[in-house]
Amino acid sequence: MPITAIFLDDGGVLNDNARRALQWRRWLGEFLPRHLGGRAQDWSEANLEVAARLFDGTFLQRHFGARREDVSFLEWERAYALEWLGGMCERMGRPLPDEADRIALMREAHRFVTGRVRAGIPGAAQTLRALHARGYRLYTASYGPRYDLEGHVATLGAGIRELFTELYGADLVNLLKESAEYYRRVFAHAGEDPAEALVLDDSPDNVRRAEAAGARAVLVAPVPVVGVRHRVAALTELPALLQAWEAGAEKGRGLG
């Protein structure tokens, strides 16, 4: 069946995570003193320390143990806000806001920062415009929440947000991307037939989950990965791959 809808990951596909991290600390350092006091540089350094632990691959295991497959986004957000803001407040010697206030402050901080960071992958905006012009319906399918994605997508360029039918993060389906059900929920919520959907992601595990949910999937990676059928080095290569598929050239290019 022809591809009619494309679901794109954010970090590693639309935006450069390394460039984002450097800018993130700067803008967060500007935001937090307005609400919690202290110096911008100190908050930036606190964030660097806390982020190293948050993203070391053990967060879900520490908080949820064997339940990582069925953790809801709301559960994850509560745990993340506690460790993220709590860790920084502890380092800064500041009192930790109560749960409702720290979640609200975390969301506000994320909106502030994501609306200012500029980390788009070179050529991403032009490629999105080209895909939309060819009639593909565009969505994100990301780990992060929609309140992050709004900023990440809008800062890619003028009019880019309007190219997307919807921005799917874990919050809209209340399920983390590690779950085998994540893509099924996203496709169902979007009203898209998985057989006509394409997922573009930089994680081999997510590519496999998308395929298990009935979609075609393409990995974004600089080199081939064992067990992954379709790969591009960057988003900018996707239109050519789609054109080859449409022309029935998969076998000739070694993609079938």
From TrEMBL:
Annotated TM spans: none
GO molecular function annotations of the record: phosphoglycolate phosphatase activity
BP-aspect Gene Ontology terms: DNA repair
One Pfam family cited in the UniProt record for this chain: Hydrolase
Family annotation (InterPro entries): HAD-like_hydrolase_sf (IPR050155), HAD-like_sf (IPR036412), HAD-SF_hydro_IA (IPR006439), HAD_sf (IPR023214)
Keywords linked to the UniProt accession: Hydrolase
Entry keyword annotation includes Nuclease: no
Record bears the keyword Hydrolase: yes
PANTHER family in the record: PHOSPHOGLYCOLATE PHOSPHATASE (PTHR43434)
Protein name (record): HAD superfamily hydrolase (TIGR01509 family)
UniProt organism field: Deinobacterium chartae
